[in-house]
Amino acid sequence: MKADLHLHTTHSDGRHTPEALVLAAARAGLSAIAITDHDTTDALEEAAAAIAAHGLKLELVSGVEVTAMHGEQELHILGYFVDPLTPGWCEAMAAQQREREQRAAAFVAALAAHGVSLSLEAVQRQAGDGAIGRPHVARALVEAGVCNTEQQAFDRYLNPGCPTFVPRGALTPAEAIALIHAAGGVASLAHPRSVPLSEAGETGETLLEYLVASGLDALEVVHPSATSLLRAHYGRLAAEHGLLVTGGSDDHGPRPGHASRLGGESIPYAWLAALRARRPGSIRGVAANYARPLPESFYNGTIKQRSQFQ
After folding, report:
1. Digits of tens for pLDDT over the chain (310 positions)?
2. Would you say the pTM of this structure is higher than 0.85?
3. CB 38 within 8 A of CB 279
4. CATH entry, 101-158, from 3.30.450.40, 3.30.1130.10, 3.40.309.10, 1.10.150.650
5. What backbone phi and psi angles, to 5 degrees, belong to 98?
């Protein structure tokens, strides 16, 4: 039995609908998947309905990939077993979506200031009903003929260091982890290769030490960006810091010049079982240890109605 715990749908920047994704996962021989759209859990209900309608033997783990900022460094915190029915969860995700919409508008303005004409409507059209983000700006730039490929759009306009880059205004990693815990979930750092894990800050504390102190539960060891040597390194780091290990394909569906990654990366089912066992038992108990109190809506006691994704 194998699982893929990092997947995206059209509810964020993926190209598979939730139904298409679960069908593809079943064809790939996966036993369990986690849909981890950016800053939204909206795909879960549709995916669960598709699994039931098609009679698939596929376990669906409720997931999310929460965007966070540590200084000028963007991090993505994966949440597993989050309950979308948790009081305050929808409000928190809505706030993340508003920040995404504001950033998309800021990108359009920055591009215009540098002589690149692109309408916000064109970007929104690429996003559809999903969580808007840089990939949609890139696709709009390709559609407008400004760039030949999405990668070219990122390299010229959308990556840090570009004159038109717009930084995020997101949660801190500690806030993202606390938010996931408050929803009954387990928090894992996504694609650690993209962040300077062992670089010490002004206090002498490394980024990984800060994340562990903030309650991080796991490290994404298996990811397409990680070589076998890096995976071994991340596995050792996880063991040294008492973290679980997880992984997935980070599939966004097929796009021009790139096939779908689904089925290309997977983890043993035992890793998923370990994550499930790590789930926090008390909403208030976890949130009470958080330095900046969450909204009162998080402290309504044990959730009386558990969602179908548990």
Report:
1. 999 999 999 999 899 999 999 999 999 999 999 999 999 999 999 999 999 999 999 999 999 999 998 988 889 999 999 999 898 888 888 888 888 899 999 999 999 999 999 999 999 999 888 889 898 999 999 999 999 999 999 999 999 899 999 988 778 999 999 999 999 999 999 999 988 888 777 667 899 999 999 999 999 999 999 999 999 999 999 999 999 999 999 999 887 777 788 988 999 999 999 999 999 763 433 333 333 333 443 333 322 233 344 4
2. no
3. no
4. 1.10.150.650
5. -60, -40
- CB 70 within 8 Å of CB 42: no
> Rounded to an integer, what distance in angstroms lies between the CA atom of residue 78 and that of residue 185?
10
- Residue partners of 206: CB distance under 8 A and separation at least 6: 197, 198, 199, 200
Whether 224 contacts 264, CB under 8 Å: yes
Architecture of the domain delimited by 2-95+171-299: Alpha-Beta Barrel (3.20)
Q: Cα(first)–Cα(last) distance of the chain, in Å?
A: 19
**Residue ranges covered by each domain of the chain:** 2-95+171-299, 101-158
Amino acid residing at 135: P
Decide whether 2-95+171-299 matches 101-158 in CATH topology.
no
